[in-house]
Amino acid sequence: MKVTLESSDGQVFTVDKEVAELSVIIKEMLVIEQANQDHPIPLLNVGAVELAKVIEYCEHHRNDPTIDDDEDYDSRKKPIEMDDWDKQFTIVNKEMMFELILAANSMQVKPLLHLGCRYAADIVKRMSPTEIRDLFQIDDDFTPEEQDKIEWEKQWTKL
Amino acid sequence: MEPNRVVTLPQLPSEVLSVIFQYLSLPDILCCLTVSREWHVEAAPYLYSNAKFLKGTCPSLIQRFKANKHYIHHLEWDALSPKVISEEDILDILLDYHASGPIEDLDDDVVLKPGSRRATLYSFRFSGTLDSVSRFDEILFNLTSLTRLSLYWWAYSREVKGNIISLDRILETMPHLIHLSVEGCDFEPLKPESPLLDQHAPMYRLQTFCFDASLIDCQESILRIFRRLGHLVAISVYGDKYNATNFVSGFQPQRVGLALQTFCPKLEQIHASGYIPFYFYLFPTSTSLSPIKLHGNDQQEHSLLEEQRRQQCEEAFELFPKLKSFSTDHCCILAVEDLRALGVCARFLTHLTLSGMIKPAYNVPLSEQQDDGRVQRRCNITTMDLQIFLETCQHLQQFSAPRMAISLEDMTPSGMAISRKRRTYGNNLIRLAKPWACEQTLEKLEIGFEVASTHPSDHRIVFAQLGRCRRLKSLSLRFSDLMPTLTHGVDLLVGLEDTLEEIPSWSSAWSCDNKETLLWLLTRFKKLTKIGTNIYEGSGLQAQVMGWLSPEQCARLSYNTKRILISEI
């Protein structure tokens, strides 16, 4: 069975239902709107470029065993295995990767979200707080008192 | 990527940050703490998620964990060393319970009611003595969110018992449990109405289970505990590490095997720590006593006999049909019948580790053997059996049996002569070796080879066989008297030049004083980065060897220091 998805900029994609269902959000929508399948499913936060890439990922991983929600219970379980295809998939520029993370997050494609976050973790590693703030355009919103408190909090790890 | 371009990235929602932090280590988390308030909020939980209360843990650290207890998800607590943490603090952290006075003074009927800010533990590792914590049961059974639980009770001797824990209560109160390890205590006898014995209830989620062998011998019905453990993938059994003849009395390998075969169809891995006998196969009752050791009068008759044995093994009843890995540590009990049958019909077996002493003992006490017609007297593993195992086992990837060696004469195929007189079986029979069946799959080999000669042609017979194992990544010469020089046959390993990664060889006959061989290996074998030599650190030989090599090549060697291994590979 086929499902149509519509990106935020109006492009329509047709994919197999089982591929689309790797997205928890779409899976839930399909259950609710069973009768209403003629209309494309709108994905308001996902642009066409990212959606195409997400679909490419889902197509490749369509036969993966689904992650049981209960097994996700312990979020620090062993990291998801990365195969050669995944490594190839992550060779894109940073902006694209972070757009993909946001897309995977809003569509709730969990394996892709974890793949992207692993990539993001590799970037954040070895960076100073200032560099991180510049990269993500974050304001340093700590008061001096809070800063002191954090410094103190960090001390114990050196014990 | 484009290093010179200024890249700015979209701000990430907090739930995404939280996923990213899962993949960071503590130093990186510390850095993220100071980025912004939002990052601080998301990173703080990861700062406190792993708590360890061990010997030497600083009291102020424990207070920090106490203040952030709701972030703790993984706890390791060593209660063997006294006063690492007070009982009041433990109750506060694990139950958010604040006692008004010392815990010992609490009335037994006061229920420790957990509060809302307590830690949500996913994994808990506890070691202690019988009386190290009062009201331990109550603490434990409030940890309903656990996925991994490991309990270790220490006792001066195996005879000192008395700590009893209820297996059904653990499984019933912790529905998410995937891994359970309980060592050093007895399990409470099962009541007939125990939920473990309920045939209609769904399976527990448990996948790995480590337990004392005594669990299985304490009562008749106990094997039925596996009835609801149908998801088990791996088991590990702890037994006596010192006494091979007196392994847990009443441990009946046959019944254990049958129970696991019936109830746990997914079982792939078995680990035995100590002298635990396992049967992997049962032979039909018609099979005569210990036929495996019979030898023919001549080559033809012997081949026929071996073929019969092989068929017998094929027909034997397989107790662990999905077995992929069997490993032992310290010591083990394994009979030749089981090894032979494993080789012939364990289709999925890829890993076999027989560490430590392999006891030349029978698998079951003799008294028991006589009672049971299906159980034959089982025999010791000899060098020839090891060779036959390798000739038959098809998918083996890793084989480690450091205390065992194959003797040269058992590896010698037809048409090859060896320098000394060969051992004969029965009436002057000489068994001719066949090629190993696992040549295409073997990746790691750690067994001994006993050549007992300095004649190059003898050594070449062994290296010829090794050279045909084209996937070999790790070849240990530690337990062999093989002489690794080009004249003795190292050149026959040339087919492995693209795969071989390590040759751990300290304490072997490898003295590395052969410049030509060393240079040949280091130049041709690009992936070979770990050669553990038997050269003593600081010796004249070391200086000599280092003189032959470039710094890059030197880095690929490791040396023997103070008669202790410098880098065990």
From TrEMBL, chain A:
Report the record's Gene Ontology biological process terms: ubiquitin-dependent protein catabolic process
Highest taxon in the source lineage: Eukaryota
Annotated keywords:
Ubl conjugation pathway
Protein name, entry field: E3 ubiquitin ligase complex SCF subunit
| Role | Essential component of the SCF (SKP1-CUL1-F-box protein) E3 ubiquitin ligase complexes, which mediate the ubiquitination and subsequent proteasomal degradation of target proteins.
- Signal peptide residues are none
Q: Which SUPFAM superfamilies match?
A: POZ domain, Skp1 dimerisation domain-like
What is said about its interaction partners and assembly? Component of the SCF (SKP1-CUL1-F-box protein) E3 ubiquitin ligase complexes.
Similarity comment text for this entry: Belongs to the SKP1 family.
From TrEMBL, chain B:
Pfam families found in the cross-reference section:
F-box-like
Q: Which domain of life is it from?
A: Eukaryota
**Domain F-box: from-to ranges:** 6-40
**Transmembrane annotation, as ranges:** none
Q: Which InterPro entries does its entry note? A: F-box-like_dom_sf, F-box_dom, LRR_dom_sf
Any idea what this protein is called?
A: F-box domain-containing protein
Report the source organism.
Modicella reniformis
